[in-house]
Amino acid sequence: MADSTQTLSGPPQAAKKPHSFTRHGVTVEDDYAWLRDAGYPEVTDKDVLAHLEAENRWFEHCMAGQQGKIDALFQEMRARIKEADKSVPQKDGDYLCWIEFEEGAEYKKWWRRPVAGGPDELILDEVALAAGKDYFNLGAISTSADGRLLAYSVDDNGSERFTARIKDLTTGELLADEIPGTLSALVWAANDKALVYSLANEQWRTDNARLHWLGQPLDSDVELYHEDDEGFRVGSSLSSNEQWLLIGTSDHETSECRMVRADDPLGEQILVKPREKGVEYDVDEREGVLYIHTNDTHENFRLATAPLADPGTWTTLIAGSDEFYLTGAELFRDFYVTEGRKTVGAGAGLDRIEVRYYDDPARVEPIVFPEASYSAGLANNPEWHVTSLRLTYESMVSPSSVYDYDVAARTLEVLKVQEIPSGYDASLYATERLEIPARDGTMVPVSVVYRRDRATTNGGGAGPLHLYGYGAYGISIDPGFSTTRLSLVDRGFAYAIAHIRGGDDLGRAWYKAGKLEQRTNTFNDFVDCARGLVARGFTEAGRISISGGSAGGELMGAVINSDPALFGAVVAHVPFVDVLNTMLDDSLPLTPGEWPEWGNPIEDKAAFEQILGYSPYDQVKAQAYPPLMVTAGLNDPRVTYWEPAKWVAKLREVKTDGNELILKTNMGAGHGGKSGRFESLKETAEEFAFILWQLQV
């Protein structure tokens, strides 16, 4: 082992190899740059692999004493899952379709039954496909309009490069067609004679939409669209009425869409409107009218219409508003549905679903739900002509429920409530939606759940609290239900979600206030939420565990640099912590498309200085840090394995405490960790065991 030495009496110490670079007149030292294999995405460097394996051995050594707790947590988490379970069947054309888990199975099976009557048909068996594989992930799945063919794609190593296959459902046989390297939906076109897909190029970018004719060699596939901007990604879908193939291209702030007849995909394409920096839009069509969801005139989006013959002339149907964030619209034959969230006042940040009518714009019928804090949305509604809508609903104390909403009667019918075999009594738990002031006076929502007898469990004192956050890309974290979370809550924890800026929980302005030059608002909000929960008596400093993944892992790195004493245990999953180096490397898969989110430090000195000022790896300092558990995936194309590896190496070098610091790299998995419903539970059990150990619960 040339570059990492280890005895199990101490952690591995990565070798320091002097390396530096100068940009905008600033020289940055990076002594652990060698942990990036020069041959990436192939990782074969023996010194790199030896170091990662040494870290894994240290992880196992440190966690060995917690194995009993890990096993107990895993068993109680598993006992809350109904192992033999299936979804509510949903009508799609001539069939009722559902998915089903069998007792003990890691993966599911896809079934259908003719509406007119007949036997159940197993159309895809994930259990069989995953057999003998350490990792399995089903990407896209799509049945042809005539119900005869099934297209699906599989990733078996976590690299998110999926191989697409086509199955003849009348014979059960696979067609000879095989498309490796896809990263997209699989869209049927040309009356089920062709598939539209996107390939991931060498940089893992989908810069294309391609048409594959069934039975023809791949080299005869036709490129329907090619994107020249390296920051944009291409994806395809069908319009709600399935008459149009929609080819979209976008980055984090700008989009553009083309339409072509689905039955004639090689026909003339219609460019809806040329891209304009900062303007996002998506489009659907009904009876010659386009419906465009766009932020062109208001950051919280409006819904506009345009005639198909003049697609770029948009007339407002629903105006953008400071008070309501319109997140989307879904068309059906006789009505359409809008989804969004209030951004101010009572119920701010909570989902709102409304049924609206083409012939009467003033007629708006909101769907009313029973709780004050919840997460709800449209489920899979595949048909064009429907009289009821399939919905999902949950809250932090209410297990996930599936409803049908009768549009004419305006009534909800419960079809299924998530079963918890080991038992669950919602009356034992309480949830609150708080507002906590950030240091600049902004009120930040926090969702909290806890047992009503928590004070008794904690001997009358302030108990432990777990705080979760993400805060990036305009992704909201909904106050939903979690069975695994109960393993902390039932041990006296309060569990809180900080709806910090950088997400779009309170609208587009909330997102913008946590990106680019305002990025540090996200970190400050999280710290201020933690302090506010202490001030409200939920916990005390040092009794707070925190977790986040990916960009949420960046959040973890930033807040332990700024306020390490506030937190008693930290878990950072696949953390995006080497922000400056990644944003300076335009050869990495995601970097050009990420510049609208973080800034471009290659060209912009101010962005360089801003990122350098908060990048967790660059800001590690000689101070005491809280106990820290870090995860990585060797095949992760989103947050490369060397980011957490370098961060941990630097922390080991300079931190002044004796607290635990452990890194686990999944050597056969990617961004999402292990696959399989029980295998992934084991990783959650490890995380919770670490937290309980460090907080001495």
| Secondary structure tally: strands | 41
Strand order of the largest sheet: 34-35-37-36-38-39-40-41
Label the structural class.
alpha+beta
- Terminal CA distance: 38 Å
- The percent range for strand residues is 25-35%
Radius of gyration: 26 Å
Envelope shape: globular
Q: If helices are DSSP runs of H or I spanning 4 or more residues, what is the number of helices?
A: 13
| Low-pLDDT stretches | 1-6
Mean pLDDT: 95
Helix content: 10-25%
How many strands, which pairing sense, and closed or not: the largest β-sheet? 8 strands, mixed
Explain the overall architecture.
- It is a single chain.
- The chain is an alpha+beta fold.
- The strands form ten sheets. The chain has an eight-stranded mixed β-sheet, sandwiched between helices. Strands 5, 6, 7, 8 and 9 form a five-stranded antiparallel β-sheet that branches.
- α2 crosses α13 and α7 crosses α8.
- The relative contact order is 0.10.
Task: Give me the secondary-structure topology.
Blueprint: E1 4-5, E2 13-14, E3 20-23, E4 26-29, H1 46-63, H2 67-79, E5 85-86, E6 90-92, E7 95-101, E8 109-114, E9 121-125, H3 126-130, E10 137-143, E11 149-155, E12 162-168, E13 174-182, E14 187-189, E15 194-197, E16 208-213, E17 222-226, E18 233-238, E19 244-250, E20 255-261, E21 270-271, E22 281-286, E23 289-294, E24 302-307, E25 315-318, E26 324-331, E27 336-342, E28 351-357, E29 360-366, E30 375-378, E31 388-394, E32 401-406, E33 411-417, E34 429-437, E35 443-451, H4 454-457, E36 465-468, H5 486-489, E37 494-498, H6 508-512, H7 520-535, E38 544-549, H8 551-562, E39 567-573, H9 579-583, H10 591-598, H11 605-614, E40 628-633, H12 642-654, E41 661-666, H13 677-694
Parallel strand pairs: 36-37, 36-38, 38-39, 39-40, 40-41
Antiparallel strand pairs: 1-2, 3-4, 5-7, 6-7, 7-8, 8-9, 10-11, 11-12, 12-13, 14-15, 15-16, 16-17, 18-19, 19-20, 20-21, 22-23, 23-24, 24-25, 26-27, 27-28, 28-29, 30-31, 31-32, 32-33, 34-35, 35-37
Helix pairs in contact: 2-13, 7-8
